[in-house]
């Protein structure tokens, strides 16, 4: 299976994957974060062959040298490095694909040097405060995760995440702090910010508390200012901006749930992650009702629902781990 996935990924990166192959790859990527990290690692290696400049990353260069020694032991490394660059730039598609597949295969085999991953994941109702190797602090909200490889803090400061997390980043101009959460990349040097990016929700938000950050998505690039919130609507592929109401993006770290003009549907998703319940809507229209307010972590679901029902048209009943909305 691992070998067939490698071939599938390379076909996709070369633009040769059929529609069925693309669907198969997408299904595999959606299984878990490890698969997505594996894909990105291979893509990073593949992309190295598409640049015309010398290989600058020390870890990648060491692996490239080892790869050349393994595949072409008779010739000197420098000579084959030169030839490798020429091949990667000018060879026919078949030869290019062969070299890339050999290189990718070698990187996968040498996992000790390339792909040890640390993952921090929280469950329902859990929050975690994490100290990263570079001294940065991350608060990870319920049902969320962050992951990074062993080169973090040494050669780079790159993190992948899903869900919600608040970052307090140590300054290091020589190593920008990079957060990947599909489809965005955020680059900072030293700052504090909150990222909200759940796979099942229609919006991604990035709230900048202090410092500066560059948001990237494909060819789109924008520098944000403190007190600014970037919001991305997945359904419309549209970017908008809001003014930061600080407590709405930071209160969760202290066990407070803060809602400001939030639809009831979005509110229930947050309650699901905090109380391990499911909401069932018997009245679909109520999903778009707007709600504002705040609750403390020690307040029960029953108390919260009573408050909501007194200020909105929401009617409910709770049966075990399910909340029915009338």
Automatic annotation (TrEMBL):
Keywords: Membrane, Transmembrane, Transmembrane helix. Residues 257-325 form the Protein FecR C-terminal domain. The chain crosses the membrane at residues 87-108. The keyword Transmembrane applies. InterPro entries: FecR, FecR_C, Ferrdict_sens_TM. One of its GO terms (molecular function) is sigma factor antagonist activity. Gene3D superfamilies: 2.60.120.1440, 3.55.50.30. Residues 119-213 form the FecR protein domain. It comes from the Bacteria. This is DUF4974 domain-containing protein.
